[in-house]
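Journal club prep — side note

Before the paper discussion, L.F. wants everyone to see what a predicted structure for a comparable chain looks like in token form. Sequence:
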Amino acid sequence: MKMNATQLYLIMRFITALANATMFTTYAVFYIATLGLSPLELLIVGTVLELTVVLFEGVTGVVADTYSRRLSIIVGMFVLGGGFALQGVIGFLQEWVPFLPVLGWVLLAQVFFGVGHTFISGADTAWIADEVGEQSLGSLFMRAKRVSLVATMAGIGLSVGLSTLGTQLPYFVGGLMYVALGLFLIFFMKEKGFTPRKREKDSSQWKEMKTTWLSGVKVVRSQPILLLILIVTLFSGAASEGYDRLREAHLITDVGFPKSIPFSMAVWFGVIAALTAFLGLFAVKFTEKRLDVNNERAVMVGMFVLTSLRIVLLLSFALSPNFWWALSSLLLIGVIEAISSPLYDTWLNLNIPSNVRATVLSMLSQSNALGQTAGGPVVGWIGSRVSIRASLIVAAVLLSPIVYVYGKAMRKK
């Protein structure tokens, strides 16, 4: 069976989105209700994940640019799949190794997640950009987002169903999906647009990787727009860690679910995720028709407006007086994230040279992880000592410098 790069990329995005929705729709039930993790422990989990990314991102990005994006992606799929499956069997592992606490097993799984993520991060985007060219990337990323949202809606139902049988099952099944995708890519993924860096005679592998990394650093330092993007990723990482880790806890402990509707927590989270994906699908389609997503200035204006709206909605969610207010804010934030993701990817790839694309993307991902590593514990400490509402307000404040950066980038253009 022959398959072009665009088709394979869309399949890859579909399966990863399906696996992620299966695992993360009801992960809060597993972490909070089953494992009993506190707000601070939830942020520690995120910090370990992001610290792993900080440590490994640079190395794996250089591997992708020096040797093979395809190899990096496939290795990442297997490592991620193994980590997710490991978390899905924590209950059994505790019986075999009782001296390691639950949090220890969760943190070990985060190391697998982080390493696997770094192999894929940057390499997947660099691979498809080389295969199809930069001219149509914006349209392809929007199309891939729509495919991902369809898969997300399917994964939501699967997550809720599996969670009712066992709260750990979504992680185990999602891990198997990643492993299956890795096997699929071994047979069908090609790499025609990438030419490995020519090695100097008698040059060691480490020297080649160092050369690639230094080339990436030189590119970032020489282009002011990339330095601005670096600031964006740093602050967005610090802000997202608080929101991503504490939004479910805010609903469970501060807001509460309506007693008039007899849904379990797993069902409620499934409904919220399904509504978010459904609205996001229409929002992405609308944006694709109304906005020239291949035009860099249009993309930057869109990011400026969306980030400003996100700050307002995050404050609204943090201060929500009741469930329906919180739900409305949460859904609108989800819509903004659905639109922002492909626009941001387009903006990045229009400003990065092909020969160091994976390396530079990894550096930016490293910056995001550094922001999450530095900001996560602070936001978690505020959640434990003051309130989760206060943590979410701090997360909104951390987004504010990004609006200034987007405004400055627009003026430069």
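L.F.'s comment for the group: The longest helix spans residues 224-255. Keep this in mind when we get to the figures.
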